[in-house]
Design a protein that fits this description.
418 residues; alpha+beta; Rossmann fold; Dna Ligase, domain 1; D-amino Acid Aminotransferase, Chain A, domain 1; five-stranded mixed sheet; four-stranded antiparallel sheet; 17 helices
């Protein structure tokens, strides 16, 4: 029996709070896991940015990537390491690079999800220095009436970038005048016009991390630090299971280990139940900061740990290709949407190794909840909260908001919620 070390790399941007918590809790866990006759231990370090030889070995077994979606050097190093060194990384960098909100809408419409009616609109303006633009537009671009398009989509509607994130340039418009104003302001962005789900009674963001999901009642109109509400028992177990299936289906389809899905519930005419409309679910590598997640932050750190440790310990293989055909085969069946969703989720659970993951956590990480409870009562944890708060808030507000976020974490500890 040999002692083997699995190495976890953290590829970070402006992340402060969760990596510090992740590293501390990993040390406290002090894991020694038997795997195939060996004893597996774990080390963690932060990935540096520097020149690299395309053939140099990668020393990590798993990389948690927070840069692929915007920093090209790290993305290309990760792609090299997957191809050359069998690295496991979340998320799939080719999928993050190529699949934006537009693709995700089209794909989930094809699978039968009740996505609101969505149109794509050509950009309002173009790069003037591109030599072929004027010729192309003069020959092929057709004038359109945004008012008539809005009538087809239905008022009110949302104008938003087809590849946007973080609520960037999202505008709700109720009439033609407002639509033209928003379109004129959109500049060079390619835009979607999407129907509004009027009369919804729940706005839920479901965070998916591997097979793990957590539903949070979400308030997009609130300041960032209050959008993830602390309300509990806001949906039934059946609704939570439905959103779990939606989220894991989307994530497995696109090869995203870590993503969040926003959905609106429109009540049925009789008032019982309703239809969940996914509206924004191309959010790989979503917000992980205590300044927005506060009371939900401990769950997220534990989710990072569980999935990273499982993938590292079991030497989980990266699915380099997405292979959509099994989902398309289900979509072609003469079944109800709920029956199809059951089958989609079964494909997702198998691809994510849900059963093996849950067995691994029960056998090797049963003490994680106790470690998290103890850690999130320490000064070190509070310092991590303060450091992130200080990075985002004006100096005169740092202590006030540090205390706010800290008290929400203490409420989580007092509630005894996993």
């Amino acid at each position: 029996m040999a002692e083997v070390t699995r190495r976890i790399g953290l590829s970070l941007g402006a992340d402060i709070c969760w990596p510090a918590c992740f590293e501390h809790m990993l040390r406290e866990l002090d894991l020694k896991i038997p795997v195939d006759g060996d004893t597996v231990r774990f080390e963690c370090e932060r990935v540096t940015i520097e020149p690299f030889d395309l053939q140099q070995p990668c020393k990590y077994d798993v990389v948690i990537d927070r840069l692929t979606h915007w920093y090209h050097t790290s993305r290309e190093w990760i792609k090299k390491s997957i191809i050359m060194d069998d690295l496991y990384v979340f998320n799939n960098p080719w999928s993050v690079q190529s699949n934006e909100k537009h693709t995700s809408y089209c794909a989930m419409m094809h699978l039968g999800m009740p996505i609101p009616t969505t149109w794509m609109i050509p950009p309002r303006s173009y790069e003037k220095e591109l030599p072929d633009v004027k010729v192309t537009l003069n020959k092929y671009a057709r004038l359109f009436d945004l008012g008539k398009l809005g009538d087809k989509v239905g008022w009110p509607l949302y104008l938003k970038p087809y590849d946007g994130g973080g609520w960037r340039a999202v505008t709700r418009v109720s009439d033609v005048k407002a639509a033209w104003k928003a379109y004129d302001d959109s500049g060079k962005a390619v835009m979607h016009a999407q129907a509004s789900v009027e009369g919804f009674d729940r706005f839920v963001r479901c965070i998916g991390f591997g097979p793990q999901t957590k539903c949070v009642l979400y308030d997009p109109s609130a300041p960032l630090h209050d959008r993830y509400t602390l309300q509990t028992n806001f949906i039934s177990d059946a609704d939570a299971e439905h959103l779990r299936k939606v989220t894991v289906t989307i994530n497995a389809f696109f090869g995203w280990d870590f993503n969040s899905c926003e959905a609106l519930r429109k009540p049925s005419a009789g008032g019982a139940g309703g239809v969940w409309h996914p509206i924004d679910f191309a959010n790989p590598c979503p917000d992980s900061q205590v300044t927005s997640l506060h009371g939900h932050f401990p769950w997220l750190v534990k989710a990072y740990l569980r999935w990273a440790l499982f993938c590292a310990a079991t030497k989980r293989k990266m699915r380099r290709t997405l292979d959509w055909q099994p989902f398309y085969d289900v979509a072609a069946l003469d079944l109800s949407y709920e029956e199809k969703l059951d089958r989609y989720a079964a494909i997702a659970d198998e691809r994510m190794g849900r059963a093996q993951f849950e067995e691994f956590c029960a056998r090797h990480l049963s003490h994680l909840d106790d470690v998290a409870f103890a850690f999130f009562g320490t000064q070190e944890a509070k310092d991590a909260v303060r450091q992130k708060t200080a990075a985002l808030f004006p100096a005169h507000e740092v202590e006030k908001f540090t205390e706010l976020f800290w008290q929400r974490i203490q409420a989580w500890r007092a509630a005894g919620v996993p």
